[in-house]
Design a protein that fits this description.
mainly beta; four-stranded mixed beta sheet; rod-shaped
């Protein structure tokens, strides 16, 4: 084990020489333990704790974790403090930090809108974002953004569908713009009756 030890060597005397002894000391230093590297994690909408590398030399005594983007801490402690020490100080316990990082939002199911004909139902594909609630709004293609409305258009014309998730402190904004057209309903002109 680590510590300071004494060694004594001696020789008994006889008729040819006298007895002698010598005492010396030596030290077994504590083994140096490198501080574990704690990887950051990316926000996923769920509660997360740090992934601490396993070891027989130290143990995790506190790892509270969290959900939102930010800095979090955990505490590791040496198991055998008589024979081991951290490489940066003599404390038995260390507080380490890691971050839950800002996430980039994306589509799990990408939205789409198909062209249609007047008086026919607009076909909108199933859509799903990784984070947040999607708001679907419409406007005429050349109109100002203030004209966006959740009312589905029914008249013939060219339109824009906007699928939008507002960004937060945890994930980015997600917006997809799709142009589509409601085509006029074709009217068949009746043949002129030549028998009249």
């Amino acid at each position: 084990e680590a510590g300071t030890y004494y060694v004594k060597a001696s020789v008994e005397g006889n008729e040819n020489y006298t007895s002698a002894s010598i005492t010396t000391t030596f030290t077994i230093n504590k083994a140096i333990v490198n501080i574990p590297t704690i990887a950051n994690v990316v926000y996923n909408g769920e509660f997360q704790i740090a992934n601490v590398p396993s070891s027989e030399i130290y143990k995790v005594v506190e790892n509270n974790g969290g959900t939102n983007v930010g800095e979090y801490s955990l505490v590791v402690e040496l198991i055998d403090t008589n024979n081991y020490k951290w490489n940066n100080n003599d404390d038995n316990k260390l507080t380490l930090t890691y971050e839950i990082l800002f996430a980039s939002n994306n589509w799990v199911k990408t939205p789409n809108v198909e062209d249609t004909i007047y008086k026919s139902e607009i076909v909108i594909s199933e859509y799903l974002s990784k984070f947040g609630n999607v708001v679907l709004e419409f406007k005429e293609i050349n109109s100002d953004d203030s004209k966006y409305s959740t009312i589905i258009p029914t008249n013939a014309g060219k339109y824009i569908a906007r699928f939008k998730v507002d960004g937060t402190n945890n994930y980015s904004e997600l917006v997809t713009i799709i142009e589509f057209e409601i085509l006029p309903l074709a009217v068949i002109k009746p043949n002129k009756d030549t028998n009249v």
